[in-house]
Amino acid sequence: MSFLSQPWPWYIAGPSIAVVMFLLLYFGKTFGMSSNLRTLCAIGGAGKRVKFFKMDWRDYQWNLIVVLGAILGGFIAHTFLKSPEAIALSEQTMKDLSSLGFTNAGDTLLPKELFDWENVFTIKGFSILIIGGFLVGFGTRYAGGCTSGHAITGLSSLQLPSLVAVVGFFLGGLIMIHFIYPILF
Amino acid sequence: MGKYIKFFLVGIFFGIVLVKSEAVSWYRIFEMFKFQSFHMYGIIGSAVATGVLLLLLSKRIQLKTIEGRFLRVPLKDRGFRRYIIGGSIFGLGWALCGACPGPMYILVGTGVFSMFIVIIAALVGTYIYGVLKDKLPH
Predict the structure, then answer these.
(1) Which pLDDT value is given to residue A78?
(2) Domains held by chain A: number
(3) Taking Cα atoms as reference points, which of A174, A7, A184, A175 lies closest to residue A113?
(4) d(Cα A88, Cα A6) in Å, to the nearest integer?
């Protein structure tokens, strides 16, 4: 069992994610996590006001079940398979993070500077989560998919639009980390 | 309920893989965009390579889904602007809060309840896209 609680290497994780994509296709569905946001909007009644959400959300219930499973999977991994060591970040990353003011990088999955309640309820902390989440929700729907739909499913099926989307993902990500982070932190 | 159990199990597996590989970690995303580790590139790269092989193989053996149709991936609409602009907007948010839509939910399972704020904001973002859809270049 001890190998399960070690961090899993990329060459185990990557193919496992491909298997998830493949199983969903085999079940007659597709792998796409951001679609759930649209489904949840539809369940909340957004279809009454906005055409985009006029859909029979029951057709997408299966995907919400995947989400429930994923939440439980997160709980299981974190509770029963938790690795004893910190995340093995590169030395340079640790240096860069500490110069931005992030301490104890890698001890937890997420930095307390952004996700601990005392920091969440500062104007800066709250704005970061709200703006980040908003951009994710808006951008994924605009692009018609996220990491699972474009980077994994779309690239695996050699679709050009997905390659363009992934280039966009990196364009945005690089701008944020290299140009906006130095201003924010 | 019976027909949903397989989706639940796939979800559990997905959640465990993403936590154990640290792909849900904000730090790993930061490191990726800094090009300071191969880890995330290895995950995405080997996922795509395996995915390509699985799809080619299922085409070769004419694999059918459990619904009896040939297994195929739905094609994305043609276009350029929506993918580059929408993709970049998503990328900004992904790097800012370190979580894409899968990990958002999974992290709630690991006990990070402040992630609900990100999820609610993402729902608002999705809603606003729905409102503005016809006015945006696609």
Answers:
(1) 96
(2) 1
(3) A184
(4) 11
Is pLDDT of A119 > 80? yes
Token pair of B71, please? 């297994």
By Cβ distance, the residue of A17, A126, A161 closest to B78 is A161
Instruction: Tell me the pLDDT of chain A averaged across its residues.
Output: 96
Where in the sequence is the domain holding A155, given as residue range(s)? Answer: 116-185
**What local confidence, expressed as pLDDT, does residue A2 receive?**
75
φ, ψ of residue B64 in degrees (nearest 5): -110, 150
DSSP character at residue B44: H
- ipTM strictly over 0.90? yes
Q: From CA A34, how far away is CA A16, in angstroms rounded?
A: 20
Would residue A122 count as lying in a domain? yes
Question: Domain for residue A58, yes or no?
Answer: no
Assess whether pLDDT exceeds 90 at residue A161: yes
The DSSP output letter for B78 is P
The residue among B53, B29, B78 whose CA lies nearest residue A21 is: B53
* pLDDT over 80 at B135, yes or no: yes
Q: What are the structure tokens assigned to B72, written together?
A: 């195929």
Burial class (CB in 10 A: 0-12, 13-18, 19+), A170: middle
Whether the Cβ atoms of residue A148 and residue A35 lie closer than 8 Å to each other: no
pLDDT value at residue A1: 64
Cβ <8 Å between B112 and A141: no
- Does a structural domain hold residue A72? no
Query: Testing the interface with A: which of B27, B34, B124, B133 to mutate, by most A Cβ within 10 A?
Result: B27
CA distances from B13 to A77, A108, B105 (A): 10, 21, 14
Q: Where are the domains of chain B?
A: 2-37+74-135
d(CA A25, CA A6): 30
d(CA B8, CA A156): 23
Indicate the pTM of the whole model: 0.97
Structural domain includes residue A160: yes
Whether chain A has a CB inside 8 Å of the CB on B81: the answer is: no
- Count the neighbouring beta carbons within 10 Å of the beta carbon of residue A144: 23
Nearest to A71 by CA among B18, B13, B109: B109
